[in-house]
Amino acid sequence: MTLLEVENLTVEFPTRRGTLTAIEDVCLEVAPGEILGMVGESGAGKSMTGAAIIGLIEPPGRIARGEIRLNGKRIDNLDRESMRRMRGRQIGAIFQDPLTSLNPVLTVGEQLIETIQTHLKMTRHEARERARSTGCAGSAFLRLKSAWIPIRTNIQGACASVS
Ligand SMILES: Nc1ncnc2c1ncn2[C@@H]1O[C@H](COP(=O)(O)OP(=O)(O)OP(=O)(O)O)[C@@H](O)[C@H]1O
Ligand SMILES: [Mg+2]
Fold it and tell me: Ligand nearest 38 Cα, by number?
């Protein structure tokens, strides 16, 4: 069974000088438990492929062609709200620069709780317990991101996977 299938994914940006094709005919498959690495020079389209898969292409950029299927269901044609609900629950991203992806004025715990409550019907207390179960325990939970830079990637990973 394939978990994620991408077929002929093409992303275009209209510009004054014509259409810029950011990625063209990208095909990939990921099975459950499989880790797929993408290698390519800067500008090759690694980030753009990821952004398209999780529905984060900024307009006027758009998926011009292709299909993306998660568990056999198409997700490239979902409306914004459906995609938002799926993101963070069934599919997520850990971005290249985790330092800028966490809010420096909220504690790690607050950001985990917020992510959980966005996706799961849980009380604040339940969400707190769930957040603590990620292993982000003790004082780490109460720290601000900027106070604990060395493990920020782990924290961001927890945010992406808690729900
Ligand atoms: N907002 C945008 N508007 C137009 N073109 C864009 C935009 N963002 C990215 N591109 C183009 O899309 C192509 C793919 O870029 P992308 O950022 O995916 O590369 P990358 O492989 O992730 O590079 P890096 O290794 O530097 O992170 C590049 O040609 C880039 O110029
Ligand atoms: Mg990139």
Answer: 1
